[in-house]
TrEMBL record, chains A, B:
It comes from the Bacteria. This is LacI family transcriptional regulator. It holds the Pfam family LacI. Gene3D superfamilies: 3.40.50.2300, lambda repressor-like DNA-binding domains. Residues 11-65 form the HTH lacI-type domain. InterPro entries: HTH_LacI, LacI/GalR-like_sensor, Lambda_DNA-bd_dom_sf, Peripla_BP_I. The keyword DNA-binding applies. Keywords: DNA-binding, Transcription, Transcription regulation. SUPFAM superfamilies: lambda repressor-like DNA-binding domains (SSF47413), Periplasmic binding protein-like I (SSF53822). One of its GO terms (molecular function) is DNA-binding transcription factor activity.
DNA sequence: CTGAAAGCGCTTACAG
DNA sequence: CTGAAAGCGCTTACAG
């Protein structure tokens, strides 16, 4: 038996049993089912355990019971504020309920997602899979082996938490219409296909209802740069307001506008989504709150609650995101001031941005 | 034996051995030490394993070998861009080297940090502990049980990765001095005591070297609000530039200035640190690059390389952060324009900010 | 209420 | 090169 590297031997249940003058079974029960023991016994055992620095070995327990006490959270990009907030909520909730959390960052790739799911399977009791990039059959394959709860993906028969931002986007379009905007754009990204599609649809429908013209723009992977690169296209399209798939892209759009000497909301209005960084941008973004942390916590609850049932979790849990109005939305500029969509003379744009519609 | 909830029975080594007509030992070796077997045997075993869908059970392997193939990353706040970038680098590197990563968010508390370290100990081969809040004796206690690499904390005899931002801050002070600033402030936070202390010292020394007056301000927990709340104090102190412990605080300072109708860098210069969000703020922040992702990856390497040695990692690995100049720093305003430090008439500050120096 | 014993699924000296 | 067997540290029917 090699011992774990660089490690002092840890006290085991056996040592505690000896020292306390009881059997291993009793020590075990003192930790896992103390109600089966007399309070005196429990106290004695726990006391000597504490004195020896004994902690039940989760690995051994897992092998014996088949339950690991772990879950894994797989997501496309921890650096994205939506996911880091989600992770925070998920990890905290898991900890609260006695579970430890593995983290897997798939770097926005389906392949890595698949690998992560496979490698971690034996070490967890279930997965929370946020905004999966994996195709449906593969997700179902994994879900057949281990309980899975997905976030922001519609998969009948698999437990899921859906953040419904459609009402928020609908409200945002209403806000813009009320402010006099007549031509708006939705800037989406394939990243969160389900989320982005949902938002695009809400904007399109609400736009129609208000008699607005709505342009659809695809920004590619959602990022600050992608948002900035859209701006030329937005201006060329002659819109006066843009709703972005998330706040990162929205902030990029504002940066692109600023580079061209355009002010927000004076010359152009911008709406974001997620509401994590929205309060910290300049100007603070009007944004649809996506309740990220709550989505993470709810997914964990759904997963953990499912462990008690024979069948895996299967229902869907919908969270509604509401519009938070800040300073990036304002009255439509006077028609003449935006007639051509041409940037003013003092444009600061360094690149002619060939990739505005990549 | 209860089975893991909602799970189909998984094939074990025993079944594979039967089907392949070999012993369990041979199956085991086919996976872990195939060089001990004839190629034919290996092929036969791996073939039937594949056919049966057998995958070695990591938990059983861990119990037997004492090596889990897991590490844990403990940090104060995943929502902070510094840590999410760090985590990204650490997780990717661990994955590359065949390790899975547990995530523990201590919510900036020493107590949770201690709990996390204890709970996870049996399930990991080692820890990466970023900017620990725990006091030294407790860190050493944990480090005595499992290999630990700390990030941004000076602990003799424990493996550590230190991001040395002092040169960057020194350069930033030089930049400001060159731009004509005579009175500057360092806005620190207890959060990352080691980091913040290091930065404070660098600013103080460089300030003295350049003949500047340097005010030290404590912002409390590093956050956007904390930064904003500092502004009144900064203006009252009569400084024309501030260097913040990180970009989040720096962005908050810029927001507080904007609320008072002051422009950056026209009326006031701001420098941040970390350089994750710095390029996305408005205006883009001059910032000291902290190489977050690299720090995370290096810490993982240091930890994993240590597993091969008898003694735990003990050296320190220093990464140097360099100054990145963007648009938040500019010439000192003309003396008269900032004489009183009183905000202009059209101040937008809603609150009189009683807690500017909490 | 408590204990003796089998078993969870692997790995690894020890033989051959 | 391969196998029989002990052991990793727990948990849990089964007795008492």
């Amino acid at each position: 038996m090699t011992r774990p590297p660089n490690t002092k031997p840890t006290p085991t249940i056996r040592l505690v049993a000896q020292e306390a003058g009881v059997s291993q079974a009793t020590v075990s029960r003192a930790f896992s089912q103390p109600e089966l023991l007399t309070p005196a016994t429990v106290e004695k055992v726990l006391g000597t355990a504490l004195r020896l620095g004994y902690v039940p070995n989760q690995v051994a327990r897992a092998l014996s019971t088949g339950r690991t006490g772990n879950i894994a959270l797989i997501l496309p990009d921890v650096a994205n504020p939506f996911f880091s907030a989600l992770m925070r909520g998920a990890q905290a909730q898991a900890y609260k309920r006695g579970y430890a959390t593995f983290l897997g960052d798939s770097d926005e790739t389906a392949h890595l997602e698949d690998m992560l799911l496979g490698k971690l399977a034996a070490q967890v009791d279930g997965f929370v899979l946020a905004s999966p990039r994996l195709d449906e059959p593969l997700i179902r394959k994994h879900a057949a082996r281990k309980p899975v709860v997905v976030i922001n993906r519609e998969l009948e028969g698999i437990g899921r938490v859906l953040v419904d931002t459609a009402p928020g986007f609908t409200a945002a379009v209403g806000l813009l219409a009320g402010l006099g905007h007549r031509a708006i754009a939705y800037v989406g990204a394939p990243r969160s296909s389900w989320s982005s599609q949902q938002r695009a649809r809400a904007v399109a429908q609400a736009g129609t209802a208000h008699g607005l013209s709505v342009a659809q723009v695809d920004a590619g992977r959602p990022s600050h740069e992608a948002g900035r690169d859209c701006v030329a296209g937005l201006l060329a399209a002659g819109v006066t307001a843009a709703l972005a798939v998330d706040d990162v892209v929205a902030q990029g759009i504002m940066a692109g506008l600023a580079e061209r000497g355009l002010s927000v909301p004076g010359d152009f209005s911008v709406v974001g989504c997620d509401d994590i960084i929205a309060a910290t941008t300049y100007p603070p973004l009007t944004s649809v709150n996506a309740r990220c942390a709550r989505a993470g916590a709810n997914a964990v609850d759904l997963l953990l609650n499912g462990f008690a049932n024979p069948a895996p979790p299967t229902g869907s849990h919908v969270i509604t995101g509401e519009l938070v109005i800040r300073s990036s939305t304002g009255p439509a500029p006077a028609p003449d001031s935006r007639a051509s969509g041409t940037p003013p003379a003092e444009t600061g744009a360094a690149t002619p941005d060939p990739s505005s519609r990549k």
